[in-house]
Amino acid sequence: MLNSTIILYGLFAGIVAILVTVSIEKFGGLIGGVLGTVPSTIIPAAAGVYALEGDGALTSSMSVVPIGMLINGMFLGVWIILPKYIANEALKLPITVFLSLCTWAVLALVSLIVARQVTNGMISELMLGMVGLALLAILSIMFNVKHRATPKGENKVPISILSLRGVAAGLAIAACLVLAEIGLPFVAGLASAFPAIFLTSMVALWLSQGPQVPQGAAAPMMLGGASVSVYSLLAMWSLPSFGIIFGSAIAWFGAVILWTIPAFFALRKYHLGVD
Fold first, then answer.
1. Partner of 25 for a Cys bridge, out of 15, 153, 187, 224, CB 3.0 to 4.6 A?
2. 244, pLDDT greater than 50
3. Is pTM, for the whole model, over 0.85?
4. What is the DSSP string of 162-216?
């Protein structure tokens, strides 16, 4: 039987996850892609791991989140690059979904093995997270340097797709907490970074708006999503120091101030300069 804490945090994650698609749909890929990727499902993931397993599991699971977000950046890169090489319009979406998930799975497996090796006396878990964040920042800048249109959506995303998005995100976070509870914090950290939000956002927007809207949002989402990595690194310290409520608030505001706001204004200035 599932722990009530897991159910509660899974439900919360599902609810907050729906807001990103609505944000991109309403404000366009530039604003929605950055602001829609402020730390959300990572909040119940970190809080749940800490509530269930304590400091050690929190540190281990959060240290691998930046690596997971780096893999998510590569996942989004597939959505940017691959579709133009698929001639059959009807096959573009299913092939892109399949190959992007395959990319994520392979890289996640490799990174999990590497993370376990390098944190076994070579580098600290905090250093592992900082390296992941630095590599994600470099990757995001590379993809955002090339100017792409970031249009707003003209059609409403169906409620059924939004609901599916919430369910997928909720299940991902619930799986993360189950893995943490059975003593697999590294795997739990990767599970918390599973691109449920990115995947369901891209599919939902592709189906309702066509490919241009999600492809325009992918690079800003990649850059904005790095705020999740910042949150995870701050949460390693703030939750044990200040408790779940205040610690989560400190990590969230820290991530938004240190990353989300600067990333938004940098992208906005760059796009206006290009335009």
1. 153
2. yes
3. no
4. HHHHHHHHHHHHHHHHHHHHTT-HHHHHHHHT-THHHHHHHHHHHHHH-SHHHHH
